[in-house]
Amino acid sequence: MEYRPVPESRLQAFENVAHYAFSPEDQPEETDRVTDPSKQFGEPRALFEDDELTAICRLLEFEARCRGEWLSLGGLRAVATPPEYRRDGRAATLLRQSLREFADRDIPLVVLWPFDHDFYASTGWASAGKHATYRFPPAALEPIAANEAGRFFRPSPDDWERLRRVNQADGEETSLTLRRTEHWWRHRVFEQSGARRHVYAWERDGTVESYVVYTVAGGEDDRTLTVHDVAAVDDRAFRHVCWLLFTHDSQVETVELPGDPSHAPGELLDRVAAPEAVTCELDHGAMVRAADVPTALEAIPYPDDVATEFVLDVEDGLVDWNDATFHVAIEDGEASCERSEDGYESVDVSVSVGTLSQLVVGYGTVERARRAGDLVIHDDDLEGTLDRAFPQRPVELSEYF
Prior knowledge:
The protein is of the alpha+beta class.
């Protein structure tokens, strides 16, 4: 088997494998098409055997916030294997080779949306946030809704930079917030799969301070307004978005609104009218894992008052370059991490690559990593120091790909 980029001559075969994996209900003749390349996301990769595509994926590369800093972030999507090549380890081989490519590019972390959480957990990925979705009648927003100043308008895709400023301000404290490119705004926000979405923005004194992106579906008596993206620079700006949604009470029965990752799940229930009419569904979100442990630990900032060093033993059942022992030193807001070829006489900290990746992005505390993960601190004096080195942060990858 050979892992390599998919040439243009094989893109049709690539699309057929992907289409069958994610839309098997379609008839074979419906798969014989290639989506407009300008609207495709990610570099196509495959495991080839005698020129046959036996497993496929797409690699993505983003800029994302992690602990307040921008860093390069890898993404995997469209991971699929034709049924005749399943259950023989090809998917794991594909993941291993893609991680090698990301590591060679000095990409510290790789995220994905799992089709099967347990499968990806077994290959080193771990949860990177939880996603809350509220469902309620529009009238529930009346106590929050504000329409005091400014104006609403319908931005065009050419206004993407004005909206990006709001998006980045809203996600400033949230790890895994992406710095969306112009292409992403035009083809993943203002539209999806070629279908345009409704977009409204609220501006005050000429500056956009909030926006909302949504679609409406259903029959005349059971329409649902689904919010796909919402951002605001502060609570007042968010309340104006709530006013716009509230005004749809004569058109839709239900509003679906994503929760704010910087707020506790369920917080909206304390602000709405008739909270008994509101449901809050909590799902696991995307998953994250380190492509390369030293690169990941050295990529993030640390509190200036933390100075420590320790021997770290990492378990990674998928890639051997992470399944090793490392010497980690943290000082002056930075870390150095060196892999040991011969090992150390004693180990201070033991952890799987998945739990370590969660600590890197700020998903949970050190205590949570011990309780719910597999972190073992052999030197009790280190626990408080590690807790200060890896403080909990809001974490959510809100971009689905």
